[in-house]
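Appendix B. Extra example for self-study. Work through it before the problem class; the solution is given directly after the inputs so you can check yourself.
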Amino acid sequence: SQQGEEDPQALSIQEGENATMNCSYKTSINNLQWYRQNSGRGLVHLILIRSNEREKHSGRLRVTLDTSKKSSSLLITASRAADTASYFCAPKAGNTPLVFGKGTRLSVIA
Amino acid sequence: GAVVSQHPSWVICKSGTSVKIECRSLDFQATTMFWYRQFPKQSLMLMATSNEGSKATYEQGVEKDKFLINHASLTLSTLTVTSAHPEDSSFYICSAYPTSTDTQYFGPGTRLTVL
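Solution. Structure tokens for the complete assembly:
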């Protein structure tokens, strides 16, 4: 299993602004998944992007994947206070379980 | 998306006792489930892979005799923390894949506090 490394570790923005988080990984993957974790809760699956995809949208979320650079980004547009959470990326290869880095702690200030 | 539940959501126990945590896949079958542990302000750490009908696979540094895993059916895995100590206090989260999907779904977690 390999873990992704999220950057920045912490991000604070005003409500309505866009938030961008980045993820880097080291070896080839089948897909990459993004998750959100509110404090004291489990992980909520946000989006999965496959290795042959470059961009994917889901509501206010936009995910990109650059396999040549081994990196991904998660963009949250028009952020809301409810988006305050930790965000994790999880690169996946084969049938190995997901492992997680430290995540990005996003604070959206109303 | 698929739903994974955990029970209990929180538990407080005395040092030396054992605690069982259940993980259920509610609307799908899972031959494999995963158990993670998360300490405050830290990331999730994979503890073990639970395999239906066979022994669990533990990550390096995780004591298999302390963290007993049983995956007796395609919808239920249990984690028993034996002879719990205060340092075992943590947030335990399970996860599973529906068959033929790549998405890993997580339970809501169980907060264990050992006094």
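Self-check: The CA atoms of residues 21 and 51 of chain A lie 19 Å apart. If your reasoning did not lead you there, revisit section 3.
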